[in-house]
Design brief:
There is one protein chain. This protein has about 400 residues and is mostly helical. About 75% of the residues lie in helices and about 0% in strands. The protein contains 11 helices and 2 strands. It has a two-stranded antiparallel ribbon with strand order 1-2. Helix 9 packs antiparallel against helix 11. The radius of gyration is 25 Å and the shape is elongated.
Length: about 400
């Protein structure tokens, strides 16, 4: 019996989260803290915690924020101070829904990235794999730091004497100010903590998508390397079926990711221009030595640009590297192979004429062109707001 116990490993981590890169592990902690972790089994205590979290930090918070739409006196106040936050929160809510209700599907996608089919086979592939993972980390760590600083900078409001709340001015009619400092402190903490947790949810899905697309890019690198290594007809016959199966898995995984995140990123792409524009306008209009809160708007704008850039960058890499597979196939020694193998390679080249692409609801592309288009739109809106502001001076 003791031998059987020794032979049976105890697993406190059935999902093997410890095997993933640190940004992914951070998103798992986010799931748990924000009540989105839907793994089985779940304790009664955690289900109660999730219910309390959703009531006070999701439903009440979002409901109160939405009511502020009717408090703003002018259209510019509505757009610049409330609506762009509302759009960000809508995107966050969609991402939270994806995380909770598609938890098993997300975990299955993660497991595929650790599967034996996705592992490097030699030293050269190991180097490609390490380089790809380092590239993922190189983009994710600055994003995590910037978004945390953006929310932390809201505490700069405490250095001013006007008793302003950092995100929206009205909370269920509760009065606050110099004569009611306790109310102000409680409401300030509620807004900052709520926004910080919402930021974590928003960032978690961005990290997950970037990781998954980054791992697909690595697999395309490995497939390309294996095609380039084919020198003879014998090597081709031994490797061709496995390579096509591997490529088919990558295609299916890409399609599954596209379908899974489509709604959330359709909303994100659609609202990013307005959000970036509004935060840029607030930053430029408030930027002086006496307005420390302009730093918050600047960091918020940088976070939004980062948030838009990541899916576009990693999606662009998937498209670019899938297109380069044609070059990799042509770089094999096809001219030393038999006639049947050359015919097969020719058909394969024709099949790969269309690279892998991702779209949000068949409309927004995950590529760098979409990113630059969004920035151009944001700048156009910003210039319009600046022109209108100058006319009023």
């Amino acid at each position: 019996m003791e031998a059987e116990k020794r032979d049976t490993p105890k697993s406190d981590d059935p999902y093997r989260w410890s095997d993933y890169i640190r940004p992914v592990r951070i998103t798992v902690w986010t799931w748990k803290i924000c009540g989105l972790y839907n793994g089985k089994p779940q304790t009664t205590r955690y289900r109660v915690y999730r219910a309390v979290f959703n009531i006070f930090l999701m439903v009440v918070y979002l409901f109160t924020l939405s009511l502020n739409v009717f408090v703003m006196q002018t259209f510019e106040q509505l757009v610049l101070y409330i609506m762009y936050i509302v759009f960000t929160e809508i995107v966050m809510a969609l991402k939270a829904i994806v995380t909770y209700y598609k938890f098993d599907q997300l975990c299955d996608l993660y497991r595929q990235t650790l599967g034996s089919d996705f592992q490097p086979l030699d030293a050269e592939e190991e180097q490609l794999h390490r380089k790809g993972v380092a590239s993922i980390n190189r983009y994710l760590y600055p994003y995590l730091v910037t978004t945390n600083l953006a929310v932390a900078s809201s505490c700069l409001y405490l250095l001013q004497d006007d008793y302003r709340l950092p995100y929206f001015p009205w909370i269920l009619g509760i009065e606050y100010g110099p004569t009611k400092r306790l109310n102000y402190g409680v409401l300030f903490a509620y807004q900052v903590i709520g926004m910080y947790l919402h930021m974590l949810i928003n960032v978690a899905i961005d990290v997950q998508l970037s990781y998954l697309l980054g791992m697909i890019s690595i697999q395309l690198d490995l497939i390309g390397k294996r095609f380039r290594s084919l020198h003879t007809s014998e090597q081709f016959r031994e490797s061709f079926v496995g390579l096509m199966n591997h490529h088919g898995k990558v295609q299916r995984m890409t399609a599954e990711i596209e379908q899974l995140f489509s709604a959330a990123y359709f909303a994100q792409f659609g609202s990013s221009g307005l959000v970036i524009c509004a935060s840029a306008f607030k930053t430029s209009s408030m930027f002086n030595l006496y307005e420390l809160t302009a730093i918050q708007n600047l960091l918020y704008m940088l976070s939004m640009i980062f948030q838009m850039f990541l899916p576009c960058r990693f999606g662009n890499e998937v498209t670019r590297k899938s297109h380069l597979l044609r070059t990799s196939i042509y770089s094999s020694r096809w001219y030393e192979m038999g006639l049947q193998e050359r015919k097969t390679l020719r058909m394969l080249l024709q099949r790969m004429n269309k690279p892998l692409t991702l779209k949000a609801f068949y409309f927004f592309n995950y590529n760098l062109q979409a990113f630059t288009t969004t920035l151009n739109m944001a700048y156009s809106l910003y210039a319009l707001l600046q022109r209108n502001a100058l006319k009023k001076v």
